[in-house]
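Example S7 (structure tokens).
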């Protein structure tokens, strides 16, 4: 049992030192998974604009939306993940990665 707890603590400490990169990767995965939904929502809102105006507006809103999510949501993920102690951070990250994989598989 001590071996498992030592492994969890070691992996959690390594994860904690790379938490900003891990959070950025998680946010990127979420953007990839739900980007089509966001694009559909933007297309629905801009549907009655002329084509010459709709395409640049859609590109701009998607770029701003994705950029804002990467810039502003990533620190929230870092804050949330940093609340876990060294014995629970690695299992939480593993569960999150499995959930992202399940969502990706169902899409």
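Recovered sequence:
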């Amino acid at each position: 049992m001590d071996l498992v707890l030592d492994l969890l603590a070691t992996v959690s400490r390594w994860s904690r030192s790379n938490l900003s990169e891990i959070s950025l990767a998680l946010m990127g995965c979420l953007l990839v998974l739900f980007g089509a939904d966001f694009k559909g929502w933007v297309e629905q809102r801009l549907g009655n604009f002329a084509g010459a105006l709709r395409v640049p507006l859609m590109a701009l809103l998607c770029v701003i939306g994705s950029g804002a999510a990467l810039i502003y949501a990533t620190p929230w993920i870092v804050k949330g993940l940093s609340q876990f102690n060294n014995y629970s951070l690695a299992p939480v990250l593993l569960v999150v990665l499995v959930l992202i994989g399940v969502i990706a598989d169902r899409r």
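Notes on this example. The chain has one domain: 2-106.
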